[in-house]
Write a structure and sequence with these properties.
The structure is a single chain. The protein is an alpha+beta fold. It has one domain: Immunoglobulin-like (Sandwich), CATH 2.60.40. 26% of the residues lie in helices and 58% in strands. The chain is built from two helices and seven strands, in the order H-E-E-E-E-E-H-E-E. The strands form two sheets. It has a four-stranded antiparallel β-sheet. A three-stranded antiparallel β-sheet has the order 1-2-5. Strand 3 and strand 4 form a beta hairpin. The protein starts with a helix and ends in a 9-residue tail after the last strand. The mean pLDDT is 79.
Amino acid sequence: MKRSMIGIALTMLLAVSTGTGCQATQYQQLIDSVEPRGVEVTGAEIIWSLLTPIGVVLDLNVIIWNGSDYALDIEQASYTIYVGGREVDEDTVYDILLQPTALTYIPVSVQLSITDLGQWVWDYLTEGIEIRVAVTLQVPLRIWGFRIASVPIPFDESTHYKLGERSAFS
């Protein structure tokens, strides 16, 4: 009786460890196939107070490629936006699904005050400004349906934005 219980326990342990190893390998392949493909400016809107402009909202897309044959759930994407080399905003987007072998566009936006804009106006009008987004994707690692950890995937992408120009992805 004892021998059969030990045999059953060893069989179950083997099945669990094999399944765990397969899922961990699949996650590693997914993580290796996720890569950034850029950031694009999709719009800019002036914010007015009565007849005076008080700021601008820039709408951006962070573009991510999932080259695997599997969809990938992202718990959250924490990002920091830099304009003209200066950090201007940070935030987090939750629950993103990266479809298999597809680009995913994660919309983010930043509001710049008129004071912030003052230092970049000349650069923007003459040569353009760099807009950079540093992102860390948090991928939940699940084994047998249970979340056991979160794997970070960091990347940093930028674009050059100039008056009258459209983004390379537009």
